[in-house]
Amino acid sequence: MSQANDLPDLVDSHCHLTWDSFDEDRDAVIERMAEAGVTQAVVVATGIEDALAAAALCDGREGLYPTAGIHPNDLPEDLDGGLAALEALLLDGGRVAVGETGLDYYRDRVPPERQRRSFEAQIDMALRFDLPLVVHIRDRDGRTDAYDDVARLLENRDGLRGVIHCFTGSADHARRYVAAGCYVSFSGILTFPKGENVREAARAVPIERTLVETDAPFLAPLPYRGKRNEPAYVAEVARALAPLKGLSEADARRITSRNARTLFRLPTNEHAGPPVYRIRGAAYVNVTNACDARCVFCPRTHDDYEVKGYDLRRPKDPRVEEILEALGDPRGYPEVVFCGFGEPTLRLDVVKAVAQVVKDAGVKTRLNTNGHADLLNKRPVAPELVGLIDQVSVSLNAQDRETYERHCPSAFSPDGYTPVLAWIRAARDAGLDVVCTVVEGLDGVDVEACRRLAQDDLGVGWRGRMLDAVG
Fold this sequence. Notes:
This protein has 471 residues and is α/β, with parallel strands linked by helices. 36% of the residues lie in helices and 17% in strands. Strand 4 (98-104), helix 4 and strand 5 (133-138) form a beta-alpha-beta unit. The mean pLDDT is 94.
């Protein structure tokens, strides 16, 4: 609860605290945010340099969480280079979303086809890194081209999560975005006298899919209109939203904050899952919560991050230093396993750095992976693991592509299966000890056929595990 007024704490789902308009009093702004009961804020980036600044600002500050993305009005001349730099930042971890990206046909500063190429690339990154997408839309006066194009690009993208920020479109467009898997976020415009179309859209969006934001330093709500906006003022947006939804102010604050924490995987009461946890004596490294796959049997697909009494949910991926500090002397463990509820090879450099320390201590290492490492890192990964990883446990989970795709859809569907087989062979040929695993009890999975595939055809080890056995 907010100490200021006994109302539930709030999340500002979109602000730009790195901008120079905050240079003179940024710390005071953050203090006022806390005093207003705004305990968490997503600091949204609009380019590579801004993403670096957002990460630096949030580092060590509780309640602030950075994104990384390239705004449609700020596309670099070398777009391919910019997108590669963005991917490198996401591989580094610690970001809660991809964006802000999207389409802006109002300023017409960047050709629409160039904007769309950047937007589609960032949609793909969001899916691959299992992060939500922060979407900007602005259209020419009286037109809906950008709104239509965004809807078209977002629809039919399995596993997509995202938010249309600072929504100013129609109620019909808002419904399309919700149907495509997005939340819709409302800003101070909700309080403006001429904001009736935005209020109409807010009435149309289910409260369970509604967020509030400031977009600070822009669009300060009444009674602060005309002043620089700041996260503390998001309280006015929640207050304006409440009667539109037939809710109390406390309801609006509680529900929208819960929505933001769900979308961005922010901690509740600043809880963060352990970077290292222990099961049966072994140390498990919680490398990341992100994953390119959404396996139907995986608890995280159903927003459950508990394993053997540990809540592994993390708002930020742990740094190498944080992992090593939590691990302590590796010689205290018989084995160190890179696992968690995400795909560790999304953060390959972190795995390698920690594994080097563990191997220097003479301790056995294991990597649990879905076998998409080469696709995720866009290079052959197995040779890099030699001497660092003693055993690789690969989730096979099916005897053929059709069965695999039914149970393990991913960013690489409709065929994420063939690359898994190729990676198993590459890891085997590199000299790694490879073990294929299969979740037993899945509809259509022929366990014996999987065993033959692993042992006889691929020439690697084999292990089955029960459907409900996690960890």
